[in-house]
Amino acid sequence: MKHIVAGIIAHVDAGKTTLSESLLYRAGELRKLGRVDNGDAFLDSDDLEKKHGITIFSHQANLHYHNLDLTLLDTPGHVDFASQTEAVLSVLDYAILVISATDGIQGHTRTLWRLLERYHVPTFVFVNKMDMDRADKQQVLDQLQTVFSQGCIDFSTGKTELSDDANEEIAMRNDTVLESFLDIGNLDEDTVQQMIKRREVFPCYFGAALKVAGIDPFLDGIERWTSETEVKPDFAARVFKISHDEKGERLTWVRVTGGTLATKAILLEDQKANQLRVYDGAKFTVQQNITDGGVCAITGLTGTYPGQGLGDEADGATPSIQPVLNYALDPKGQDIHVCLTALRQLEDEDPQLHVSWSSHLQEIRVQIMGEIQLEILQQILLEQFNLDVGFGEGSILYKETITQPVEGVGHFEPLRHYSEVHLLLQPAPKGSSLTFDTQCALDVLGKNWQHQVLTNLRSKEHLGVLVGAPITDMQITLVGGKASNVHSVGGDFREATWRAVRQGLMMLKERGGCQLLEPWYQFRLEVGQDQVGRAMNDIQKMSGSFDTPEMTSNDDGALTTLTGVAPVSEMQDYAQEVRAYTHGKGQLECVICGYQACHNADEVIEKLKYNPTSDLENTPDSVFCAHGAGYPVSWDEVPRMAHVEYTYSLDTLKNK
Fold this sequence. Notes:
With 656 residues, this protein is α+β, with helices and mostly antiparallel strands.
């Protein structure tokens, strides 16, 4: 039997969970159909999901259809929970992208498509709600081919075989296949399967999940046109989710990508897989072994995280979806440390929550995607942890980067301790985050000390010196240092390493080599032609830019579409204005397109008044020793007093 793991993804309200319900029903796994709006959907089993009528957490279900053993992973549709969806993509054989026939491709649908490209996930498209009056099959198909790929091809045209037109369209997606097709006049099944696997072709099906229309042809298509993923011979698995059950037990969800996972197997240091649970909705069965391709939740593991590789599986890529808003917790009289413990557990489940604790300010801050996620977070804290808390006004989550290279130095030499570290800080490509390397000879700094430096670089979030925001898009390379055979210990190199990063950033700040970044939206704004002038003026006031306007029309008359980019800080509340001045007929779609230079950096820096030398947890200063006692040295004096000569001169750095 063919075993496939498929994830169902969609823009919110496209009918994703309803499709899951219909697939399970037609496969005989459910006796009756549940409904999201009735709160009895099989996969939306959490109380919060029933209350809000949306999927908040990813869920697993299993079905058998003819020769197909299909594991379904239902994912959140709302943009605020997109990080959970992204984590699931790394373990899929195939994705099922659900499109609403009446709404077409939405802003978040575009984001999902980019994620599918990033993770190279072969994709089936199910166009839902075809029973609605405004549904136009050809219009949706044309949009899919224009916006996504010409490989989006209607596979629902034939009863048992693809139509001649579909075969020809498929063949045209690959020159070699087309040549063969013209010679022999047909396509064999394996060729089509491989083209789908290579993301050259995206089979499209049409139906109405709520009425179970088009479900059987879609199941037939998945059975016929999918192929199993080649697996590794030795044990390998990838983590895609962390959760806690109703008793508080920690669950590590994995897809086994090679070999066999057995109960009591040692997976991390001395940690064993105590129990292997295969979930089906809210219920689970315990199994002794999970073979390659299987999905399960493991009890007994701590310290695991989404994207982590186990056994022969490497860690996955750094998530591309990052939070852009920052909120301070209002404990409302609750014990702040109890709140921190609860939030740490939720951060364990969703690392993108980024909980930060300032012992100096006695303040907790969380980083999130939007207001819906914040509302859900408050309810989880109340219902799961009995914590009635609030959050202050949200602020934009800034980041910092550098535009010039610099050699930073950190020295840590209290009495009976010694370490000096030289780090080359260099600008890195946009979106590359932080990368670490060493170009230091072993006779200069031993292997053990170099390992200490690299480990300590990875062990904390490095903050910039403009507003104290996280540093990104920077390469840090160990280029020199010094240890003492008598006095150096590992902790010394932690201190020297962190100080070297900050000292280098302070040097760059003096030279104008630090840059403040902010999140930007890619937007699509649709307004009436008589409102275009107002829209253009608004975008320019928001420091945004737009491409040449496109003219279209619908039942309400002539429309103009503006596409472009604008800062999140300026545009995040603009949708309400659009609805007001277009009398509800305008439409604004916004998706995060990453971080760019802050449009009002000087104003933000002045407002936040961050003092990097007063941030004692991230000090740029060093400690030297004289006359048997350690004493602090200001960051700007460190180069003059360093014990190791600089690897790079200022002129050399200018040419790097």
